[in-house]
Design brief:
Number of domains: 2
Number of helices: 18
CATH superfamily of the largest domain: Metal-dependent hydrolases
CATH class of the largest domain: Alpha Beta
Helix content: 25-40%
CATH architecture of the largest domain: Alpha-Beta Barrel
Largest sheet: 9 strands, mixed
Structural class: alpha/beta
């Protein structure tokens, strides 16, 4: 493979690339190692990921005692008054599977306000100090699209805040400084490069996030490529200045907007037609009315913006497809490439609509092997319509793969493993959970590269190792086509190249 000016100019045998060799050409012999296009993660929370790398990591807590111990240790190394954020805890792996409460950590964080997210980012735990700073009391009403969890006997908030209720606390957390943001962004991109991820689609970036990225660009510090989605509430401002889909250059582009239809299954706030099996009192939350959702979609679509719409439950996915169909009828045909993020539980009658409407299924295969531990308890037989992949393939849907980092690991090897085995990292259930939804490794790689490139209007320059493509590629320590799928999570990156420059190399 010959690379010039940041692009691939030739691929083939020695005679094909020889004409591009000059006296100052650098020759790299990979000794037969496997080379793939750089991975393109279609759904990340880039800055949150960076701050997570710098913050408290609760994902490894296997019990509530471990949760408490990690928070206590982290607090002991912080100046008094400093917020403790981060998290990624998962109570579903604990023996009792009960949500934590503020009492679990109050006495070990008397001098620190705490706000730590569950790994799905739809549930957070605040300690008493943080609740007090936010003014959350027994009398505080639930906001629309959110729930303040309360003790059933006393009505006192437990510290658990679901979906929009968490904004009450986030609103009082001081903004990180510009330098802290730069540190988080640098940490995030270095982590990505170490995993062979050369492009990332930041699914819901704030104004301050965008400013951080621009500062990195101006300082020539960007080493990964970003496609940035803004909140759909900014659709009019973007339209007024003429921003359309995929506006920018090869390093950073904007033009997508993100909206939420519902919450998450882990929080029982994903929107279903029928109640939850383990909580018949609820069938989930609509994070806005169907009418408000349709109005936003119609406006954003008319402005030429790409739309990424979060939908988990079966009803939420129907609402999302209905809104996209209405936009197509109202605003005419154009190459929208709108997306449904997660598309986690989809009715059989809705499956063909993705291809019919040109809607991309933006999927995160790692969610399947994380959530299968508890999903059937939540929704029972509806799991047969959940975490679909092969069904989308059969219906000729466009598919993009991502991780939802930090909800799941950013490591694409774990996503590939999940897609081809549908087994936990420990190997259960043998043969895979709903094994008919497994796909071939070649397909999984395509969805993680070319599929994700299509989802950001970049399939003409990313996702393939062909002349004319950007020279973004990754070198692996083993040939993943000749190993057992069980070895995929153990596969390591030896080198990551972006634009022809080595951005990461295993020492």
């Amino acid at each position: 493979m010959a690379v010039q000016g940041g692009c691939i100019v030739a691929v083939g045998d020695e005679s094909t690339v020889q004409p591009f060799k000059h006296s100052n050409t650098q020759i790299v012999d990979l000794n037969g190692k496997r080379v793939l296009p750089g991975f393109n993660d279609a759904h990340v929370h880039f800055m949150k990921g960076g701050f997570h790398l710098l913050g408290v990591d609760l994902r490894k807590a296997q019990t509530r005692d471990e949760f408490r111990a990690i928070v206590k240790d982290y607090a002991s190394n912080l100046p008094n008054g400093r917020w403790i954020t981060g998290g990624n805890w998962d109570h579903e792996v604990w023996p009792d599977k009960h949500w934590p409460s503020k009492e679990l950590i109050d006495d070990v964080t008397p001098d620190h306000p705490v706000m730590v997210q569950r790994l799905d980012m739809h549930i957070a735990l605040a300690n008493s100090r943080a609740l007090g700073m936010a003014g959350i009391t027994t009398d505080t009403p639930d906001p629309f699209g959110g729930t303040i969890h309360r003790d059933p006997k006393t009505g006192v908030p437990t510290g658990i805040l679901i979906d929009n209720a968490a904004d009450l606390v986030y609103g009082v957390i001081p903004d990180p400084t510009a330098e802290e943001r730069l540190q988080a962004a640098r940490a995030a991109q270095q982590h990505a490069l170490s995993l062979g991820v050369t492009s990332l689609q930041d699914i819901n970036a704030s104004e301050r996030d965008l400013r951080t990225y621009l500062n990195l660009c101006e300082a020539s510090e960007f080493k990964v490529r970003l496609y940035v989605f803004r909140p759909i509430g900014l659709r009019r401002q973007l339209a007024e200045v003429g921003v359309r889909r995929a506006f920018g250059n090869a390093w950073m582009r904007i033009g997508g907007v993100k909206a939420f239809t519902d919450g998450s299954m882990g929080a029982r706030s994903a929107l279903f037609y029928e109640p939850y099996n383990d909580d018949p009192a609820t069938s989930g939350l609509a994070l806005q009315s169907k009418e408000d959702l349709l109005k936003m979609i119609l406006e954003a679509d008319a402005s030429g913006l790409q739309i990424a719409l979060h939908a988990i439950g079966d009803k939420a996915n129907t609402w999302a497809l209905d809104a996209f169909e209405a936009a197509r009828k109202r605003n005419g045909n154009w190459e929208r490439r709108h997306r449904i993020e997660h598309a986690q539980v989809v009715l059989p009658t809705d499956l063909p609509r993705f291809a019919e409407l040109g809607v991309i299924a933006s999927l995160q295969p790692s969610h399947c092997i994380d959530d299968m531990r508890w999903a059937e308890g939540r929704i029972g037989n509806r799991t047969k319509h959940s975490y679909l992949v092969r069904s989308f393939v059969k219906h000729d849907s466009q598919i993009a793969f991502g991780t939802d980092w930090t909800v799941a690991s950013l490591n694409p090897m774990e996503g590939l493993y999940a897609a081809v085995t549908r087994e936990s990292l420990e190997g259960s259930p043998a043969g895979g959970w709903f094994p008919d939804e497994k796909i071939a490794l070649e397909q999984a790689i395509e969805f993680y590269t070319l599929g994700s490139a299509y989802a950001e209007f970049a399939d003409h320059e990313k996702g393939r190792l062909v002349p004319g493509s950007l020279a973004d590629f990754v070198v692996l320590d083993r040939d993943i086509f000749s190993i057992s799928p069980k070895e995929l999570p153990e596969t390591r990156v030896l080198m990551t190249v972006v634009g022809g420059d080595v951005m990461f190399e295993q020492t």
